[in-house]
Amino acid sequence: MEDRHDLTDEEWELLTPHLPGNPRHGNRWRDHRQVINGIMYRERTGCPWRDVPDRYGPWESLYKRKRRWAADGTWHRILDALRTESDISCDIDRKLYEGDNGNDSAARGGEKRPNWPVAVDSTVIRVHQHAAGAGYAPAKDLVAAYPDKKDLFCRDESDGREALGRSRGGYTTKVHLAADARCRPRSRVTTPGQRHDTTAFESVMSGIRIRRSGGVGRPRTRPSHLLGDKAYSSRANRAYLRRRKIKAVIPERDDQVRNRKKLGSRGGRPPTFDQELYKLRNVAERSINKLKQFRAVATRYDKRDYMYQATVDIASIKIWLRDRVLSSRSSC
User: Is pTM beyond 0.70 here?
Assistant: First the structure.
């Protein structure tokens, strides 16, 4: 009996080529479809692992599969493969960007770069009490299996262990996200909840790496425009975008406008701002809303940060699969 949270046949057909095969030696994988559907059920409902229905198999198998693939980076590789197969031309709203290719290379006789706007934003995630209390030492079995990733399994920072930040309401985690014009997550970074949005800006931008289909050429890392709210309006962020030749679509803060006018001619010119293109910035918020349809994303239940990052990646995989299925239907 299929559940409404299970992957459809079309989604499964897209996902199957990117799943790891059975090892040459040792035990074989339990049925991928049954286990992944069980993991999707848990992430969508946010229920305890022990309460996952028996039709998905033993809950221990589901948890261990998610934990193992989070540790070795399988979830992220699957998501990266789905992003690679998407055509960048589908990310453009031709009516909005017709006649503006985002750079001046065409005027200089160079190759015309297509429009690829990306919006950034962040959201604060409330942390359940069960997510607190992670040990100070990483799990021994993971350290033995992946000795080069020891720091990943136990994140310890001065302002919050395991990306758990303190606030008046309790523990919080902040998810920083970059999304494309179709509300699909492109990059994500987790930090303690009290950190400012702009502190993770460069980390989010560096996480945008879309491999070319066929593996030929360098990854796509430079969007044509970067859309952000006033929280990202700083000299450091604008200088970073200029170095990478990315057009900033970020409004100035009121205090920046006052200070610039106070200096007169020494204050310089105001930064360019495309009001029409800025209307697209809501795609980041809509992408966050899509992620929060998964209750294990909207409320954090994972003790370890790498496990919560895997939760966000699993939700992103479902979003990308659904988008590709709908795109294929509309193109038929």
Answer: yes
